[in-house]
Amino acid sequence: MSPDLLESKSIGALLGTFTGDALGMPVEGYTYEMIVSAYGQVTELLPARLGLGTYTDDTQLMIGVAESLIECGVFKGEHMANRFVANFDSQRGYGRGAVEVIYRLSQGVPWRSAGAKLFGGGSFGNGGAMRIAPVGVMYFSDTDSLLDTAEKTAKITHTHPLGWGGAVLQALAIGLSASSEPATPLDTDSFLNELVSCIQPEWEAYQHKLEHVRELLSQPFDEDEVIERLGNDISTQGSVPTAIYCFLHQPDSFEDAVLTAVNLGGDTDTIGAMTGALSGARLGYEAIPPEWRDQLENGQSGRDYVMELGKQLAEHASKILTGLRN
Ligand code: RVK
Ligand code: MG
Ligand code: MG
């Protein structure tokens, strides 16, 4: 892969997360029917509670993952946990389990235990998966490291197997998207087979969900069926397969894939963010409509900063790719 394409894909995965998050934020928690009655369809960035083009916890935490991987060159749990604490901004709208873990970390609880026993058996919220794009991009050419790093990254906050397992699945899907040649049609069956082959017994529930994805892809799009069979909620199991479906349904259009995700309703910022990461990793950041890119917030840790993180992450991804080839 040329260095330019790799850089564009790396920026695409990070800026894709941001763009999907910003598109979904104004309708977060709306049902499909509420979106229809308020907007007909979401087709553009809408005014949001923090302003047009602003992001939420999804992008904020993704930035922390990217910063830590770039600075350390490898997963370092304490460093990444410290980035989550330093970047915390309650206005961005975090899940309550994530708030609790970040508070525990700020009080000196070790990163290996801060996420344990949340909700009894650990969180299965989609917060581990929504922030995982940097891992998928950095290790796209090294699947073992990708799987291991995604698991460790998610487990800082999400120790339920469906929580961290779904994050691993999303990271692998981003890695496969980054490996794909944008000008060649995507073989969605092979893509799903690769995902299924990495599922571990602790989170085998995803196997069934991915078979639903395969079946839904063979039929005309029907939002009710997608929502009923895959979900559109705040759980990892009710959102990661949905994002994978939205991407595979329209693998060659960032705009169509992400708008399909957002218009399903439910956890719109997160399903939008995860679909955006997948699509951006395949198509590169230039596939994100320029008028959307221009409208993304661009203050401290805004659009330019996220693009710079994408560039630096691509350098790490390139070294790993080259190292494996030698
Ligand atoms: C606000 C029962 C559980 C559970 C378990 C439920 C942001 C809880 C982002 C919990 C994302 C919620 C989202 C989210 C990301 C999780 N038993 N219920 N074992 N595990 N839940 O709190 O970072 O929007 O109701 O860990 O994963 O945009 O509050 O946070 O949409 O899932 O939050 O899980 O959330 P958390 P998170
Ligand atoms: Mg959010
Ligand atoms: Mg959300």
Give a description of the structure.
The relative contact order is 0.20. The protein is an all-alpha fold. The longest helix is centred in the C-terminal third of the chain and has 23 residues. The model has no long low-confidence stretch (mean pLDDT 97). Bound molecules: ligand RVK and magnesium ion (2 copies). One magnesium ion (MG) binds next to helix 16.
For this entry, what is the oligomeric state of its chains? Answer: single chain
Helix content: 55-70%
Radius of gyration from CA coordinates: 18 Å
Query: DSSP strand (E) fraction?
Result: under 5%
Number of helices: 18
Low-pLDDT residue spans: none
Question: In a few lines, what is going on in this structure?
Answer:
The chain is mostly helical and 326 residues long. Helix content is 64%, strand content 0%. The longest helix has 23 residues.
